[in-house]
Write a structure and sequence with these properties.
CATH architecture of the largest domain: 2-Layer Sandwich
Shape: globular
Number of helices: 8
Strand order of the largest sheet: 2-3-1-4-5
Distance between the termini: 34 Å
Helix content: 25-40%
Order of helices and strands: EHHHEEHEEHEEEHHEEEEHE
Largest sheet: 5 strands, antiparallel
Length: about 350
């Protein structure tokens, strides 16, 4: 599927803790997302999803949603469990309980397809969220730099430390960039045979299959959910068509040929609370590593979509930081896409 239409922009936000900042380990993404959304609601659309008497929420007017970035991005949800969000949050990937004043941390935001037009709203919300504080104790932070990252490891500076004006050049990437990363991942001397691939689940991977939680890194289930997610994003945010059923079947048959040969994973229990709805959501999932083996021809078919999984994350609650997965293949070049996340 060389003409896959989805595009994306990946931003890295480099920040400095000003007061003790308690992200809560694997709740960091949920806390960040909640703070950013609250700022955007107040600044851009204070009436988004208004509460009716008795606390029942009413869906916003469709015409309003079409023109309001906050409703379009974060509030509208006409098809719960089916609609995808056009943004993906990657929290700090060192899941520590807190940051001390003066410590730096990094998080990422990826916008896909049409959602890229709303990038300025997120950029404006980050420093304000830092001033308002987040997490237990409302810890504050300052935004230091914003960079746009590419899959080849290069980057553009959008906001340098000490600057107040955002530079206009934003790096938009496409399926062509994904295919170039696939070429770098594959060993230079790969001529056939069986190759091993390591997947590192850096934040909880929460997969549901047949209405049940999957608590082991089953490759076929993971790939089926990933392909479904990537295709829905392309349809909803890039005007893409449905992937032919024959191609879906062919890719799923390839995924069934992948063998799990080693795993070092654990299940972590994580809960997220909403101050707006006064409800609690479970974000629990798998973290750790899993090693898989398959013939080179199989990896050539599957790797483009696995790389898309690095971009858009996998499974449930990606807008809250879940499902961060990174690929490593022995003998490949530029295999550690996670390096910039741990700066």
């Amino acid at each position: 599927m060389a003409d896959f239409p989805l595009t994306f922009t990946r931003l890295r936000f480099e920040c400095l803790a000003e007061t003790p900042l308690r992200f809560g380990e694997y709740r960091a993404g949920s806390n960040l997302r909640g703070a950013l959304v609250n700022i955007m609601r107040r600044a851009t659309c204070p009436l988004s999803v208004p509460a009716l008497p008795g606390g029942v929420s009413a869906p916003p007017d469709p015409q309003h949603v079409a023109t309001c970035p906050v409703c379009w991005l974060v509030a509208a949800n006409e098809k719960p469990g089916v609609e995808r969000r056009g943004y993906i949050l990657t929290p700090p990937l060192d899941p520590v309980p807190s940051y001390a004043p003066g410590e730096r941390f990094v998080f990422h935001l990826t916008l896909v397809g049409e959602a890229q037009r709303f990038l300025p709203y997120f950029v404006l919300a980050v420093p304000e969220a830092g001033r308002m504080g987040m997490g237990a104790g409302r810890g504050r932070f300052a935004l230091r730099r914003i960079l746009a990252e590419r899959l080849d490891g290069s980057e553009d500076v959008l906001l340098e430390e000490g600057e107040t004006v955002l530079r206009p050049d934003v790096s938009v990437q496409s399926h062509r960039d994904v295919l170039a990363r696939v070429d770098r991942l594959l060993p230079r001397d790969a001529a056939g045979g069986v190759l091993e691939l390591l997947l590192h689940f850096l934040t909880p991977l929460r997969l549901i299959w047949n209405e049940r939680l999957v608590k082991s890194p089953d490759f076929a289930v993971l790939f089926a959910r990933l392909l479904e997610r990537v295709d829905e994003l392309a349809v909803q945010f890039a005007g893409g068509g449905r992937r032919p059923a024959q191609e879906v079947e062919r890719l799923q048959n390839c995924a069934l040929q992948v063998r799990l040969i080693e795993q070092n994973t654990r299940w972590v229990e994580v809960a997220s609370g909403s101050s707006r709805t006064q409800t609690q959501t479970w974000l629990s999932g798998i973290v750790g590593t899993a090693r898989y083996a398959a013939p080179l021809a199989v990896w050539r078919e599957l790797l483009p979509w696995l790389v898309w999984g690095e971009v858009v994350q996998v499974g449930k609650d990606t807008v809250k930081g879940n499902g961060v997965v990174h690929i490593w293949m022995e003998g490949g070049v530029c295999g550690d896409y996670s390096a910039s996340d741990r700066r």
